[in-house]
Specification:
single chain, 394 residues, mainly alpha, 15 helices
Amino acid sequence: MPLALWALTLSAFAIGTTEFVIVGLVPTIAQDLSVSLPSAGLLVSLYALGVAIGAPVLTALTGRWPRKIVLLSLMTLFIAGNLMAWLAPGYESLITARILTGLAHGVFFSIGSTIATSLVSKEKEASAIATMFTGLTVALVTGVPLGTWIGQLFGWRATFLIVALLGLIALIGSALLVPANLKQSPPARLKQQLAVLVNPRLLLVYAMTAVGYGGTFVAFTYLAPILQQVTGLAEGAISFILLIYGVSVAAGNIWGGKLADNKGPVTALLWIFAALAVVLLVFTFTAHSPALAVLTVLVWGAFAFGNVPGLQVYVVQLAKRYTPQAVDVASGLNIAAFNVGIALGSLIGGVVVEQMSLTDAPWIGAVIVMLAFALTWISGRLDSNRVAVVESSV
């Protein structure tokens, strides 16, 4: 693999770290800035909202720009956002910094795959994309727990400074290694993009993505305060538990992808959503026991992100069928749907924590995930009915 691809991988690592490290720092930020836990949790929602807006809107606005120029501009914005977070004097300025960083995140993953495939020959394209997304997985396994540990030891601002430095290294690597003459597909016309937004079958999958992914974040956003205040674990243990969670997520992603390949995306998603709902429900009760809580978090990680491959594959399959001229747009909008789910899930979690209690977040997340299960079942039935109609007409 070319060295330029590793610059993209480092960018993905830095971006993945800055997105999810906030989960481990929610109690620390709340205490330091004298805000409530739901207010600190809102930083997760607003970042995700920045991603959801940035992915489709900025991708469309920069569609005709040279890919390298877009990449370098994104990483510059990413660095600026993290430096703003490092220097943030208060809660409002930290919100602004998170939204700006989220805008960069959204476009990076929209164009990152295209750039990665441009760097290699046709037969290595899938491996190139997998290599780049390894940065995101490694961020969950090492970047998030390490960033949490740094934030607890030196203050949460130090975490954002370290991430900004990682972004600077990635920016320099991309500037030196990524070629300027990358091949570029013509952007989809506005009519083709609108066809995706009004297609009911694709909208159903976006709803599955937002609800299924968002259900996890009702509880995950407040995992650190649950483990500290309900389970009774020390602050220093949180980074270790996030490490366990990240390893489980990495394994779950691989397992979820293989399940989607072997059983088809709909069957895989039904199994994963059902298991995820059960685990979240169980966590409501095991959160009171340190040993059982850690074990539940380990199992939770295996299912929490295992739905990602199935959802992404499914939306591409349907886009090829219903909007073949705008498959990239459809895929990008699903990335936005993931982040709409994060934003809504974190927001709902904040309301639950404020109006009810920390232990209510997991079972309410389970209910929301079961709604995703129902939507997936409906989508599967529609697929079966279509196949039946096609076969009867032959």
